Amino acid sequence: MKIAIIQNCIRTKQLEWTLQFATDLLNQQPEADLYVLPETFATGFMAEGSVEHGPRILNWMQQQANRLDAAVAGSIAIKDKEEQPRNRLFFVRPDGTYDYYDKHHLFGYAGEADAFVAGQRRVIVEWRGVRFLLQVCYDLRFPVFSRNRGDYDAIIYVANWPQSRSEVWHTLIRARALENQCFVIGANISGDDMGICNHAGDSAIINAYGHTLAQCIPGRVESAAAEIDMESLQHFRKKFPVQADADEFQIISIEP
């Protein structure tokens, strides 16, 4: 499977420009099976009025998935059916159908917990023979929540991760790949987000050995892609069955 990571920038309050720029980056990686965009990739993190653009951005994702005959993933600030604001990671298929995951660990340090409602569902989607666990940014710091129960092959992390904590990002995406014997796909914003926070990007695709399969240059606006080999992953898991020795526990506050 070919996976592309999109490390785009955001132009404040210029949604159509940002979407067109993201389209151009998608086009740089033809014939991928999955395109992964960052957290709130079209509006910026907790941008004023961003939830009102949610339906328009979702429609754009559906159009791109259909055009590319691929899945497209990325998070959007959007209201749910009860009109509650969510930081929602959509996984959109070419036929327009989608699954979604609502960010569980809201970033209280920046006030996200006051502005959005936390999700409670653990979400895994299957696409073209690969099972993906969906996660958003701050979730990366909480390994118990993303623990592999033998139910996924790769983790998608979409992020608005600041440059000041780049070393943490580098360390944790590899840790999640190593401890869960899985691929990790991390897509992060690049550039100055609304003059509030600078992002280096550091988007990367990591294999179960912690090796980098593809990466975007820090500070650049670009895309990258890699093939993930499920046969080699299964061989590694069988040869070195770490999960067989894992501790047993249950998180009773999270819906299955």
Could you explain the architecture of this structure?
With 256 residues, this protein is α/β, with parallel strands linked by helices. It contains 5 helices and 14 strands. It has helices at 15-27, 54-68, 112-115, 166-180, 230-239, and strands at 2-7, 34-36, 71-79, 85-92, 98-102, 124-127, 130-136, 154-159, 183-188, 190-193, 197-200, 204-206, 212-215, 222-227. The strands form 3 sheets. It has a 6-stranded mixed β-sheet. Strand 10 (190-193) and strand 11 form a beta hairpin. The longest helix is centred in the first third of the chain and has 15 residues, at 54-68.
Provide the fold topology.
Layout: E1 2-7, H1 15-27, E2 34-36, H2 54-68, E3 71-79, E4 85-92, E5 98-102, H3 112-115, E6 124-127, E7 130-136, E8 154-159, H4 166-180, E9 183-188, E10 190-193, E11 197-200, E12 204-206, E13 212-215, E14 222-227, H5 230-239
Parallel strand pairs: 1-2, 2-3, 7-8, 8-9
Antiparallel strand pairs: 1-14, 3-4, 4-5, 6-7, 9-12, 10-11, 12-13
Give a nutshell description of this structure.
The protein is α/β, with parallel strands linked by helices and 256 residues long. It is built from five helices and 14 strands.
What are the defining features of this structure?
256 residues, alpha/beta, 6-stranded mixed sheet, 14 strands, globular
Percentage of residues in strands: 25-35%
Distance between the termini: 27 Å
User: Can you give the mean pLDDT?
Assistant: 93
Derived from helix and strand composition plus strand pairing, the structural class reads alpha/beta
